[in-house]
Amino acid sequence: MKNAAETELPQPARRGFLKGAAAAAATLVAPGIFLYRTGQAATSLDNEARWGLLIDTNALSEADVDACVSACQREHGWRAEPGSKTDAQWIRKVKLTDQETGHQKFLPMMCLHCESPPCVDVCPTGASFKRADGIVLVNKHICIGCRYCMMACPYKARSFIHETLKDQLPVAPRGKGTVESCTLCVHRVDRDGANAVPACAEAVNRGERKAILFGDLNDPQSEISRRLQELGGTRLRADMGLNPGVRYQGL
Amino acid sequence: MDSLASITRLLLLAALGLAPLGVAGAAEYEASGFGEIAVPSPEKPVRAEQCVEPVEVMRRDHMKLLDHQRDETVINGERDSKYSLVGCMNCHNPASESGEVVRYEDPQHFCAECHAYASVKIDCFECHADRGLEQLQQGKLDSAPPAWNGNGAGLNSATLGHRLEVSQ
Known about the structure:
The complex is a heterodimer. By secondary structure, chain A is of the alpha+beta class. Chain A is 25% helix and 19% strand. Chain A has helices at residues 4-8, 14-24, 62-76, 118-122, 148-152, 186-192, 199-204, 223-231, and strands spanning 27-30, 33-36, 51-56, 91-97, 104-110, 128-130, 136-138, 159-160, 179-180, 212-216, 246-249. In chain A, strand 6 and strand 7 (136-138) form a beta hairpin. Chain B has a domain at 55-137. The chains are: A alpha+beta, B mainly alpha.
């Protein structure tokens, strides 16, 4: 015996399912999910571009670096959780002091999106990964929070979320028990491609003066490649051979 | 044959004898309230007439669609799909009667209603926003990040909460 409510529930039409599967000429796993299908281009990233940043430290004052950090916080909704002993480290301010002359220099420090990222090497689940376009991310769906990547990263770019969070922003889902780091504003990159401007760059770039320049390192005609060719750029700890995608000038 | 007939007769008698008991039992059951558990019928969104797939497909397979989509987004950067969780929450964002934000823990929340009924715990909303972009932009957040004034003035490590590092 079925009660009234049960009999009113719509059921998928099985005949329609078979017809649809034949018409699509594809292997249907579930509605909308195909093992393969014909005649439709699959959307997937290619490795044509390799995204990077060029940070001109001569053009950045301490206030500029602070603006980078707060812009990143606003963009992704992270902050120092009250009472927490460990801060989120998406981006941080590094102060360099020349002890002889007392000269100080400030630079923003974040995930450098290495070509050979040690965080990816050590990840036991494959959660730490490099996208085809060179952006190094944490797939938080499969991150188990072991924090090996945090220890492997020579730039201390990653941090762990200890607290139960609320009100995360849709562009940056983040939660307790996972590791996180700079995403190179991947949601903006996916939207704007080569014209993307990460939040930190947006905060400090004014007109033609681009203290933080985003671009394609693989394209020799891109502005970032031309500036690197003309003025050079420092790879931090180049001796480790990780070939970071974020380069610095003026160090 | 005789034995079979007698068994049938016995069974019939038993059934007749027990029938009134059964009715009485059902009546008691309903009176106790256990028979009144209703299948949930969550409120439909007002702004869209049709979901991204027919209702019967969504009922059975929304988890498969979302599971597939999350990998497409994280790994392949596909952010325009109609199966995004943000897309779900943009339509299915119930406002409580008092105008307050309805969180996933609230039984009024679109997802919570059926998931409580089916006893299926989901952890989507431990990381993802449990309501639409509009509600998020209205600013009713408990833990909003510090306001950014655009030029860094007045910000220090205490307000920003980031660590200063000194080297050399």
